[in-house]
């Protein structure tokens, strides 16, 4: 005897780009904005029969999920990846009564305007803005919405103002104390907004200024990373998370992951040279893994 414990399905890696023109559809003399994103959609609801009985009558095809993303991208202004995610969540929960929960995950390829061109862009950022939205149908018919924004692959480093000393000593410790080292990491951050409730037919986007919050959080974290002496990655992570919460009143918690990408000073003594914190061996593995979630009191 078996039981279907949990099920979900959808479409992943639906990639689209959109040209946002300043007025008419003509490209002549128009100033463009260029948006590119990849969207994952996962549906939960009354689909058990498709798994247990091969009954597909309620299954919204993953191909339909894909097509829906492109149509919604056409109709939505896409002011932010979060606002577009709200549009996607609201559509599926409004359109399909047998869908009771949807998860939408979005990552954005950022394009920067090239030399103030109206239609030229460069996309050389390593870091990727992200957003995850979970929409749930409530018993009273309203929609509960949880929005998490973030960034991944944010590579940051500073070449001084960092050390690590006075840590636990035991028989297996070999790492010496150091008061001047490279601190390098590839940061992942995810911050949670307070949950929202919406009417099923509510079409307006939340009043949160997602892009403004993202910029303030990003700038506050990087400024904090730079502007203190780091006694450990743990301390720096906590200070950065605290700065993020102070920068945007709308978020209630933030999770940071900051793997310690080691730069180990190379021994130049056999070659008759003194290494004055100049030459380092860069290692990818193994690496220190540090993460924490910080919230408001």
Brief overview, please?
Helices cover 22% and strands 34% of the residues.
Major sheet description: 9 strands, antiparallel
Q: Helical percent range? A: 10-25%
Question: Please, what is the average pLDDT?
Answer: 94
**Beta-strand level of the residues, as a percent range?**
25-35%
Overall 3D geometry?
globular
Secondary structure tally: strands: 13
* Euclidean distance between termini CA atoms: 47 Å
Contiguous runs where pLDDT drops below 50 for at least 5 residues = none
Give me the Rg, rounded. Answer: 24 Å
* Number of helical regions: 5
Structural class of the helices, strands and pairings?
A: alpha+beta
Write down the secondary-structure element order.
EEHHHEEEEEEEHHEEEE
Task: Please describe the topology of this protein.
Blueprint: E1 9-21, E2 32-45, H1 48-52, H2 62-75, H3 81-95, E3 99-109, E4 112-113, E5 121-122, E6 128-137, E7 143-158, E8 183-193, E9 196-198, H4 210-226, H5 233-247, E10 251-257, E11 263-265, E12 280-282, E13 291-295
Antiparallel strand pairs: 1-2, 2-3, 3-6, 4-5, 6-7, 7-8, 7-9, 8-10, 10-13, 11-12
Q: What tags apply to this protein structure?
A:
two-stranded antiparallel sheet, globular, nine-stranded antiparallel beta sheet, 297 residues
Protein model, in words:
- Helix 4 (210-226) runs antiparallel to helix 5.
- By secondary structure, the protein is α+β, with helices and mostly antiparallel strands.
- The chain has five helices and 13 strands.
- The chain has helices spanning 48-52, 62-75, 81-95, 210-226, 233-247, and strands spanning 9-21, 32-45, 99-109, 112-113, 121-122, 128-137, 143-158, 183-193, 196-198, 251-257, 263-265, 280-282, 291-295.
